[in-house]
Amino acid sequence: MTITVAITGASGVQYGVRLLEALRDLQVETQLIVTKSGQDLMSIETQHSLNYVTSLARQTYEETDLSAPIASGSHISDGMVIIPCSMKTLGSIAHGISSNLVTRAADVCLKERRKLVLVVRETPLSGIHLNNMLKLSQCGAVIMPASPGFYTRPATIGELIDTLVARVLDLMQLDHSLSRRWGD
Ligand SMILES: Cc1cc2nc3c(=O)[nH]c(=O)nc-3n(C[C@H](O)[C@H](O)[C@H](O)COP(=O)(O)O)c2cc1C
User: Fold this and answer.
1) Which atom of ligand 1 lies nearest, measured to the CA of 87?
2) Does the domain spanning 2-171 belong to CATH 3.40.50.1950?
């Protein structure tokens, strides 16, 4: 299995790092893009170096690299997760503006009818944000707000992050034991 993961410049970069760690542990191949703003947020919000984060992925591409394999529909993949997804990236995808590798790879997923999960983060949301989410949901993307549940009573921020990342793994139909399920 091979999944594209993009980390953009919204708050919650930790979700993306944790997803990469979980995918590595599950031996899923990942292709990673971290936007310039994603890198900025990584140093603002986490203690992770970019080197550590890229070491989790099988392959890392620059956001400017529009000739990367994942920019083409002829390159087979099992889908893409943008985690976290900024409103700028959301808006670009919703309007078909494939100006960087994140938005182009997402556009490819939509046109090839592959799974596209957008872990969006902003608060509050404007009508523009909501319209862009509706549009992409109608085009087949999964809009997943970065709002973890509390019903597992997470005791640490790490556990809270895992409750959300676990739901992303569920969406990608990956078997895992990252977080307790309701009823377990
Ligand atoms: C500290 C900080 C937090 C931010 N948080 C968010 C956020 O939660 N959601 C969002 O849409 N943009 C957020 N932004 C703004 C984005 O980083 C900005 O729109 C950027 O252009 C996104 O670029 P990208 O989508 O190419 O990564 C934040 C910026 C900073 C500096």
Assistant:
1) 11
2) yes
